[in-house]
């Protein structure tokens, strides 16, 4: 409670004052200054080493994260009403898809959204405020999938559930050419995994995808993993742990829907917006993936926010995060 109060009070401090106070404590890496407000904010956030958590305690950690997200609002409040409807879309009514209907809809496209959390954490509820914000800004209908989490449900369970969600949308009358995919971190990985899977197995062409700081490389050996190993919310150790919990077998690394860094010369993805953050262990692998798409004649737009960190898209109460989110959503809206 005290920490939440301090964080809420922190958001009342003028950003110019934070920048002034932060001058002697500048965090400079790769010739870029880490956003001062983000630096102080992360210092206030609770720290725990997720990679040291045993499987038996993961459920408890999920519940704690859910409770903290409910008690601490990190996304900006929306200005208009967003209507939500929860759909159960599989035969045993265990797979939930939450529909977000904004006050005004500008186009006939819909977005299938996947939340982040390393395939181990989070839910449609932890990302609810973020998706509401997206829906209001994009003025587009969004469907957010409550896919099954690892380690209880390993690869390719979430991918197969994303296929079910896509088929359900098509059964509801949505043309695949009007369906866009979007996700952050693991959710961005799931979007690409789905795109690649249907390219390999079904003759379905989707409209587009927006990938927000995607996890791409299970090897976790890029330079950015070393430079931003810890101190910027997502750590190198946590990322290795997430991949370990998600993987079901050693052979997964040879599957292009698991390991996005496989040099597949036939890779075909829909029109892609890829968002990266400068102070993110995953930034190098995301940029390498963007180049892989470009190299294979895919339409790819990379939007880079050098002073921000992994996770900023759900934290729009931070001034620089809001500016960045509004910027990439404007670009996304342009292609919808």
Describe it.
With 336 residues, this protein is α/β, with parallel strands linked by helices. The chain has a single domain, classed as 3-Layer(aba) Sandwich (Rossmann fold). Helix content is 38%, strand content 17%. It is built from eleven helices and ten strands. The protein has helices at 2-10, 15-22, 36-44, 58-71, 128-138, 157-171, 186-201, 223-227, 236-246, 283-295, 319-335; strands at residues 28-29, 32-33, 83-88, 96-101, 110-114, 141-145, 179-184, 208-212, 271-279, 300-309. Strands 3-4-6-5-7-8-9-10 form an eight-stranded mixed β-sheet, with helices on both faces. Strands 1-2 form a two-stranded antiparallel ribbon. The radius of gyration is 19 Å and the shape is globular. It starts with a helix and ends with a helix. The mean pLDDT is 94.
Ordered list of secondary-structure elements with their pairings:
Blueprint: H1 2-10, H2 15-22, E1 28-29, E2 32-33, H3 36-44, H4 58-71, E3 83-88, E4 96-101, E5 110-114, H5 128-138, E6 141-145, H6 157-171, E7 179-184, H7 186-201, E8 208-212, H8 223-227, H9 236-246, E9 271-279, H10 283-295, E10 300-309, H11 319-335
Parallel strand pairs: 5-6, 5-7, 7-8, 8-9, 9-10
Antiparallel strand pairs: 1-2, 3-4, 4-6
Helix pairs in contact: 6-7
């Amino acid at each position: 409670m005290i920490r939440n109060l301090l964080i809420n009070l922190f958001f009342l401090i003028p950003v110019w004052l934070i920048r002034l106070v932060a001058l002697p404590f500048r965090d400079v890496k790769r010739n870029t200054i880490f956003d001062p407000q983000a630096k102080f904010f992360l210092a206030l956030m609770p720290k725990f080493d997720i990679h040291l958590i045993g499987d038996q305690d993961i459920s408890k950690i999920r519940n704690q994260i859910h409770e903290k997200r409910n008690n601490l609002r990190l996304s900006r409040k929306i200005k208009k009403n967003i209507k939500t409807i929860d759909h159960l879309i599989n035969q045993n009514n265990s797979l939930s898809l939450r529909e977000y209907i904004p006050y005004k809809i500008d186009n006939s496209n819909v977005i299938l959204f996947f939340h982040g959390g390393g395939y181990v954490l989070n839910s449609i509820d932890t990302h609810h405020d973020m998706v509401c914000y997206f829906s209001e800004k994009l003025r587009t209908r969004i469907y957010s999938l409550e896919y099954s989490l690892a380690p209880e449900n390993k690869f390719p369970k979430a991918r197969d559930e994303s296929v079910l969600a896509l088929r359900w949308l098509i059964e509801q009358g949505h043309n695949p050419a009007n369906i866009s995919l979007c996700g952050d971190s693991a959710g961005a990985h799931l979007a690409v995994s789905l795109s690649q899977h249907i390219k390999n197995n079904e003759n379905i062409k989707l409209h587009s995808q927006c990938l927000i700081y995607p996890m791409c490389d299970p090897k976790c050996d890029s330079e950015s993993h070393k430079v931003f190993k810890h101190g910027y919310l997502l750590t190198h150790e946590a990322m290795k742990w997430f991949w370990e919990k998600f993987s079901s077998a050693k052979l997964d690394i040879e599957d292009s829907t698991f390991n996005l860094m496989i040099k597949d010369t036939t890779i075909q993805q829909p029109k892609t917006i890829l968002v990266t953050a400068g102070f993110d262990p995953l930034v190098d692998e995301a940029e390498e993936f963007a180049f892989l798409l470009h190299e294979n004649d895919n339409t790819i737009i990379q939007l880079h926010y050098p002073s921000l960190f992994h996770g900023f898209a759900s934290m729009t109460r931070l001034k620089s995060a809001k500016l960045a989110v509004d910027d990439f959503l404007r670009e996304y809206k342009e292609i919808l």
